[in-house]
Design goal:
The longest helix has 47 residues. The chain folds into 3 domains: 160 residues, no CATH class; 97 residues, Orthogonal Bundle (Helix Hairpins), CATH 1.10.287.130; 149 residues, Histidine kinase-like ATPase, C-terminal domain (Heat Shock Protein 90, 2-Layer Sandwich), CATH 3.30.565.10. It has 11 helices and 14 strands. Helix 7 runs antiparallel to helix 8, helix 8 packs parallel to helix 11 and helix 9 packs across helix 10. It is of the alpha+beta class. Keywords: ATP-binding, Cell inner membrane, Cell membrane, Kinase, Membrane, Nucleotide-binding, Phosphoprotein, Transferase, Transmembrane, Transmembrane helix, Two-component regulatory system. Its main location: membrane.
Length: 512
């Protein structure tokens, strides 16, 4: 999500910077075109102010920019198809109706300037004129510019409102008049406006039959020449990325809390409910999780009560059956009958033990795990004198403290050790050093192991590794189920792994 939002934000930032860059490019192109046109007119004046016989020498002494080509010719280049007199040219490019009240007015001839208000700007009068010399247009001569009375200088201020008219040339246009006066060209030819970056002007020099041909090329704009473009993009990307990552982590914090609560959830543990404070969606998720946890605990509690009730109710008829079996006169039949009753009693006792362990009524205490396991190993070895030498607790230096229910842990490790001896022939109990707040205990044997598909199935109730259901070769199938219930009820877990080259390993993880 962070990556997606960052990419989207960067895309929007690039679009915004691209629009700004296009505006900057447009402004830069107009500025460069204006500057190059001024440079062209200055080159013209440098040549035109000399006598005709010295113009070749002046041209050789000029040092124009590398993008400029300047030469004298008998006629304009053939591709300079547009050609006008000077007065018409200045109407198209500089000032509509020409410069007023100057010696240039005398060159206007018929159709030249006449007293009266200035007309609309040239770009509204001549749509076919090539405004590309100024990069797309000329300064607007309307509104808020100084105006002049007929036959006078510029005085006063422009009228305001919808009736304001175009009043006269701008200061920049006066600069152009001062630049060329008193050496105006007789005629001017130029390239058509469809040439993108190529510009060209040819001036018929005064008092001369030759033309000054000037051609130049506008530089291509490069937005990456500016250090602000990549710097702005980099700062926006880094800043937005950090804010997005922080925001997404804040949004996902309730999800991580919910995940941790689900991982630590133990049906038999009295863990506190999740807080239902915060945004609506978070509160609803926490409330749903608390309701689910409550239903699971209620279901397990009801199952446990049912098992306990069935076990207690079965004890009375089993006891009566055992007493009545004593009155059977056939000794062989009586022994078989008592054997079946004892087997039934063992199954009921195991069921009651399973339900009792599930209730987790024993309080949690801090205990010495090494001392507890030593007690369990000694008790199992004492109850199985023939197998005592094959039940070993590996040496461990130090003390490992853990929180748990001592009686429940004794019963769980007793089941694991007995299973290891019954099915593997021996039991090796190993305590591993604590790591990340967890302590691990392994119970290993050298038996044949189990198929991989049965390693998890062995923890189901009434499932045995020995499928014959013969009481002489196996128990009730509740030992591992009771063990996992006890350990998970204390915040730990137990899993089975096959050893190499043979044997089985029960790995118990507890809270250190």
């Amino acid at each position: 999500m962070s990556l997606l939002l960052t990419v989207g934000f960067v895309g929007l930032a690039i679009m915004g910077l691209a629009v700004e860059t296009m505006d900057r490019i447009t402004f830069h192109e107009r500025f460069v075109a204006h500057q190059d046109l001024l440079r062209t007119l200055m080159i013209y004046r440098s040549v035109a102010e000399d006598p005709p016989g010295e113009r070749d020498q002046e041209l050789q002494e000029l040092d124009p920019p590398s993008s400029f080509s300047v030469r004298l010719a008998n006629e304009p280049d053939k591709d300079m198809v547009r050609q006008e007199g000077w007065m018409e040219f200045q109407k198209l490019f500089f000032v509509p109706e020409g410069f007023r009240n100057s010696p240039l007015d005398d060159m206007a001839g018929p159709g030249g300037p006449h007293p009266g208000p200035f007309p609309l700007p040239f770009h509204s009068l001549r749509n076919d004129s090539p405004p590309a010399f100024f990069g797309g247009g000329s300064p607007d001569l309307c509104h808020d510019l100084p105006h002049s009375e007929p036959g006078g200088d510029f005085t006063g201020s422009a009228p305001h409102g919808p009736d304001a008219q175009c009043l006269g040339p701008s200061p920049e246009q006066h600069r152009l008049k001062d630049l060329l006066f008193p050496f105006p060209p007789t005629r001017v030819a130029w390239l058509p406006d469809h040439r993108k970056r190529y510009r060209g002007l040819a001036f018929l020099l005064p008092n001369d039959t030759r033309w000054l041909v000037i051609r130049y090329r506008l530089p291509a704009p490069n937005p990456f020449n500016s250090a602000t473009f990549p710097l702005a993009l980099g700062l926006m990307t880094v800043g937005s990325g950090l804010l997005i990552v922080w925001g997404v982590r804040r949004l996902l914090l309730p999800v991580r809390t919910l995940s941790a609560a689900a991982a630590a959830f133990a049906p038999d543990a009295a863990s506190p409910p999740l807080s239902e404070q915060g945004p609506l969606e978070v509160a609803q998720a926490a409330a749903a999780f608390n309701a689910m946890a409550s239903r699971i605990r209620r279901f397990i509690s009801e199952r446990t009560r049912i098992l306990s009730a069935i076990g207690h109710d079965l004890r009375t008829p089993i006891t009566r059956m055992k007493l009545r079996a004593e009155f059977i006169e056939d000794d062989e039949m009586r022994e078989k009958f008592l054997h079946d009753i004892n087997e039934l009693m063992s199954l009921v006792e195991a069921t009651l033990e399973f339900s009792k362990d599930s209730s987790a009524s024993e309080p949690l205490t801090t205990l010495d795990l090494h001392a507890l396991l030593q007690t369990v190993v000694d008790d199992v070895a004492e109850s199985r004198p023939l197998d005592g030498d094959r039940i070993i607790l590996a040496d461990f230096n130090g003390t490992v403290m853990t929180r748990g229910r001592p009686m429940g842990l004794k019963r769980a490790f007793t089941n694991l050790i007995n299973n290891a001896v019954n099915y593997g022939g021996n039991a090796m109990v190993i305590i591993h050093p604590p790591h990340n707040g967890r302590v691990t205990v392994t119970v290993e044997d050298d038996g044949p192991g189990l198929p991989e598909d049965d390693l998890e199935r062995m923890f189901e109730a009434f499932v045995r590794g020995e499928e014959s259901r013969n009481r002489e070769t196996g128990g009730t199938g509740l030992g591992l189920a009771i063990t996992r219930t006890i350990i998970r009820g204390q915040g730990g877990d137990v899993v089975l792994h096959n050893r190499e080259p043979n044997g089985l390993q029960a790995v118990v993880t507890l809270v250190a």
